Please model this.
Amino acid sequence: MSIQAKPLHSVGVHMKRKEDPRFIQGKGHYIDDLSFPGMLYLSLVRSTYPHAEITNIDISEAMKVPGVKAVITGKDLEAAGLGWLPTFHGFDKQMVLAIGKVLFQYQEVAAVFAETRAAAVDGAEAVQVDYAPLPVVADPFASKTDKTLLRPDRESKTNHIFHWEVGDKEGTARAMASSPKRIKQRLWFQRCHPAPLEPCGCVAYFDTMGRLQFHVTSQAPHVYRTALSLVTGIPEDKIHVMSSDLGGGFGNKVPVYPGYVCAIVGALKLGRPVKWIETRTENLTSTGFARDYHMDVEIGATADGNVTALHVATTADHGAFDAAADPSKYPAGIFGIVTGSYSFPVAHAEVDAYFTNKAPGGIAYRCSFRVTEASYAIERGMDILADELGMDAVELRKKNFIRKDQFPYPSALGFTYDSGDYHKTLDVALEKIGYTALLKEQADKRARGELMGIGLSTFTEVVGAGPSKHFDILGIKMFDSAEIRIHPTGAGIVRTGTKSQGQGHETTWAQIVAEELGLDPQTIMVEEGDTDTAPYGLGTYASRSTPVAGAAITMAARRIREKARKIAAHLLEVGEGDVEWTDYKFQVKGVPAKTVTMKEVAFAAYTNMAQNEPGLEATYYYDPPNMTYPNGAYVAVVDIDRETGETKVRRFVAVDDCGVVINPMIVEGQIHGGLTEGFAMAFIQEIQYDAQGNNLNTNFTDYLVPTSLETPHWETGNTVTPSPHHPMGAKGVGESPNVGSPAAFVNAVIDALSPLGVRHIDMPLTRDKVWRAIRDAEAKKKA
Ligand code: CDP
Model:
């Protein structure tokens, strides 16, 4: 049956988002909408120094501010055994409030609780903290020397956090040494911030039964409940975590932040609800940043352009605590995807992480754990190689793509890519953008001295963490779950362990149920984010929802269908073996006139079930057998003004392959959003620190978010290569545009500047940086 002929809003259909009416009417339910009788407000005192000893904290003036009820410091928390918080992947701990010294500017130093938000802020300003400045380490390369030891609290007395490597070191070195062609380039993926529209926040209180009621902006509510229980000692049944609507997350709402712990402590100490909502500046300066990877990329090739070896050595800046939210066995995330879409016979990747006096984080900003960095490295590397070989970037890619017939493909760094057709996806993109005509236009423009660039990115992602044999967070395996209940009238409810932050789960999860059970998705309610009702799951980030929870929903629905088949047989008065599921209903085999719908079966499940078990519900915990490997071919066309360095993205074509698509409109929306973020990182965004460790991008006048005026027009398309191991054939998609697009933008700019001899510029490609590169290149030519 073709997609258009489907009778219901099931899989593959452009169904309007069920959640949007409440959002567009301003009726979403966000954390700051919550108010409880007697609620207090929490404001945090933050360090003005990046590295300093705390010589004294005087709270006396703060306590005099009208409305201030209490002030707590790190020492108070330490006395209560709550001074430190384990970080998510479990190899480090983080101070809740600074004890003895501060390690980054804006670090949390004291917590002030007051009757109003204004009084809490005034109280925080009145806390007097005396500091004795210490030497600042603001550069991971300087950190390597261990001249200033940042974390004497740790057993190993070094700023080096970890060394991680994968692949064949000696084999790669040998292959590289004997390669006729080699390129080597350092690429820095600058520090960025996800900057969700709604910052982080929570409301905590203990109810009359002494149970912690915790409303919080969390992408992973169940993990929060378990982590809070482990940290505070409160039994897990006495903790109720609730995340309602979230104004974006992008990985920023995965870690547990000091503000949350302080709110809970305040609620316990003062016996009243406590609300904490961070400001934009607090969000940008202290909650999980992303990237900050300095990558030395080396590619070997034959003279005619067959890749022979890949080596990537990375220096990672993790800030003051190792708070990267990565699965336990993956301290450098899934960086091993760095071989990308290409058939490298041998490869080796290594990452060394260091402490610096910067905010902690390293979270998976719309990325499946360092896949964005990896993708950028290989896609820039391939362009540099094409330049070195004097080969067209398309030709080089096509020559080295993993072929369609090679899947499942074991990569040199240990992944088994599930499926793909890279040649086809690239051809669709090239056709759409009119590549041949563009090359001609570029040649003409170059002859006139104009700067026009065409940039490609043909990336492969790895999403859907993950198979329990490899993936866990704090030891909890990264499965996910779904519970489906069908009510007597054929309406129903789906609950999962994931948590939408705007991705449209209320719509797509209902569409999966519609596809599997033939019910109307408009009457399938989706509920996520409440640990009292949802089955246990690891949450939404890293594009894992569709690959893992989407699969769990499919399997739970199929369980329901099997139960329903028995009732259908009873209604159709035949044996169960004579009933088949066809065209979204049960039918007696070979008798198209004898059918019964799922809606009828649902009613019978409560009214006329004969000897069958009453009710129609099922739960499924899904442990994926493999990750999914979405991929795409992106092409950017830019024009650069030679006099000002201003870059205009004239066209951008994105062709994505995320396997079977549940809702093409939602997927397109995901692509548009992610491309806009990729554009921002490529051209305007960076969290910068000066040499003294001062954060220079503390608000939206310094950390720019593109508006509709700057954002280019996106042209999208897709190819479909189903995932062979996912029950619906779907792969994740939310991260792809963020992962794939930065390299396309940078490749386009460098292609435009290549006639001047420019080989690389680090992001963000601001107009002054591009202008300087043009000027320097012209000066060099003249000299
Ligand atoms: O984990 P997260 O929800 O961020 O990412 P995702 O699984 O890639 O899904 C993002 C949105 O796109 C969800 O609403 C998905 O159900 C939808 N999607 C889809 O319609 N078809 C796919 N093949 C993949 C995702």
The longest strand covers residues 181-192. The chain has a mean pLDDT of 96. The radius of gyration is 27 Å. The CA atoms of residues 476 and 538 lie 8 Å apart.
